[in-house]
């Protein structure tokens, strides 16, 4: 079953146009520059923004079709949403915020609070704050409460808008796992974080100037990103490892020098254009260097995207002229390097 949208949303003279978008089961990441329509897409699916034309169906049920006079309001759709600004109910206690959706569906107060408590424990909110109002919580705690509230009614579709923006580094891995394991059949993950895409997404939708620029599996969209912003964003390499001070050891044992100190499991991210390629081992202590096997070269105009295997799988963007001068071809053993200052450590 899918979420199928073919239509447009008009907001303050600006229009989001979506042509034949089908969102399958699992996690679909929605990415794009600021102002491209990511949040508007989520609000349309949730029923908070009505279509100006077209048709929206969730799991085979038409929920918005202006021409047919069909519109199912938000509270009647099995959709949970974590807003970018959270929108917790300030007059309700934390536990009652999470229990709210269950109470709306007929669950009695005791059972709703019990289930709310289970979810709050799962997202890492200490029981000592359950009886407090949201204003008394930190930004990260409020983010966790918002995620628990959206999950409580076990929605068919879960929409999360920048879900980890306010969460401290120690809690991100757990919340990523929670989103990935959501019982919702469809999860729309609106994000600017390449780690979210690399670790959670099965599908990817790229929005550009109010239209869908590219869609498909992560691999398909990475190969054909559809716009310059997405090409840069999807060129980010994401490498898991274990940090100790200013060193990160990858799963294959490659040790990367990084600029910022960290401890424990992390992801190291760096853009494809930061990777340089060499026929011989590069000199200089400012670079991390490793030997790799060239798997594929994709030529796009004057740019060549090089896919490398070896101790870490990464992408490198070089000019077509450099690719020709290095005589790049599949199967070639080549040295790759990247400066420590280009590496970002994400927990």
Layout of strands and helices, then pairs:
Layout: E1 3-11, E2 14-23, E3 26-31, H1 38-46, E4 53-58, E5 61-65, E6 70-71, E7 79-82, H2 94-104, H3 109-122, H4 139-151, E8 157-161, H5 169-180, E9 186-190, H6 194-200, E10 203-208, E11 211-217, H7 218-223, H8 228-233, E12 237-250, E13 255-270, E14 276-278, E15 287-300, E16 303-309, E17 314-319, H9 320-325, E18 333-339, E19 344-346
Parallel strand pairs: 3-9, 3-10, 7-8, 8-9
Antiparallel strand pairs: 1-2, 1-4, 4-5, 5-6, 10-11, 12-13, 13-19, 14-18, 15-16, 15-18, 16-17
List keywords for this structure.
347 residues; OB fold (Dihydrolipoamide Acetyltransferase, E2P); 2 domains; six-stranded mixed beta sheet
Could you please describe the fold and organization of this structure?
With 347 residues, the protein is an alpha+beta fold. It folds into 2 domains: 3-235, 3-Layer(aba) Sandwich (Rossmann fold), CATH 3.40.50; 238-346, OB fold (Dihydrolipoamide Acetyltransferase, E2P). It contains 9 helices and 19 strands. The protein has helices at residues 38-46, 94-104, 109-122, 139-151, 169-180, 194-200, 218-223, 228-233, 320-325, and strands at residues 3-11, 14-23, 26-31, 53-58, 61-65, 70-71, 79-82, 157-161, 186-190, 203-208, 211-217, 237-250, 255-270, 276-278, 287-300, 303-309, 314-319, 333-339, 344-346. A 6-stranded mixed sheet has the order 7-8-9-3-10-11, with helices on both faces. Strand 8, helix 5 (169-180) and strand 9 form a beta-alpha-beta unit. Helix 2 packs across helix 3 and helix 3 packs across helix 4. The mean pLDDT is 91.
């Amino acid at each position: 079953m899918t979420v199928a949208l073919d239509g447009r949303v008009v907001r303050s003279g600006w229009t989001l146009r979506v042509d034949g978008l089908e969102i399958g089961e699992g996690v679909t990441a929605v990415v794009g520059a600021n102002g491209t329509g990511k949040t508007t897409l989520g609000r349309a699916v949730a029923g908070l923004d009505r279509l100006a034309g077209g048709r929206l169906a969730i799991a085979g049920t038409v929920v918005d079709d202006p021409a047919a006079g069909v519109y199912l309001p938000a509270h009647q759709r099995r959709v949970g949403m974590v807003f970018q600004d959270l929108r917790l109910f300030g007059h309700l206690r934390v536990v009652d915020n999470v229990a709210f959706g269950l109470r709306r569906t007929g669950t009695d107060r005791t059972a709703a609070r019990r289930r709310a408590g289970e979810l709050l424990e799962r997202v890492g909110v200490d029981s000592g704050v359950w009886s407090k109002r949201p204003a008394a919580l930190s930004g990260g705690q409020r983010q966790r409460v918002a995620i628990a509230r959206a999950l409580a009614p076990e929605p068919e579709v879960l929409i999360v808008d920048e879900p980890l923006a306010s969460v401290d580094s120690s809690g991100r891995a757990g919340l990523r796992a929670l989103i990935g394991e959501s019982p919702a059949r469809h999860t729309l993950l609106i994000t600017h974080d390449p780690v979210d895409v690399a670790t959670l997404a099965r599908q990817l939708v790229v929005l550009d100037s109010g239209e869908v620029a590219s869609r498909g599996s992560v691999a398909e969209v990475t190969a054909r990103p559809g716009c310059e912003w997405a090409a840069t964003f999807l060129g980010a390499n994401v490498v898991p490892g274990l940090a100790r001070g200013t060193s990160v050891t990858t799963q294959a044992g490659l040790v990367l020098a990084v600029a910022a100190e960290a401890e424990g499991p992390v992801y190291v991210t760096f853009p494809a254009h930061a990777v340089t390629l060499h026929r011989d081992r590069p000199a200089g202590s400012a670079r991390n260097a490793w030997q790799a096997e060239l798997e594929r070269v994709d030529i796009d105009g004057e740019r060549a995207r090089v896919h490398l295997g070896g101790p870490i799988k990464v992408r490198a963007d070089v000019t077509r002229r450099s690719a020709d001068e290095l005589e790049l071809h599949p199967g070639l053993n080549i040295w790759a390097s990247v400066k420590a200052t280009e590496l970002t450590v994400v927990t």
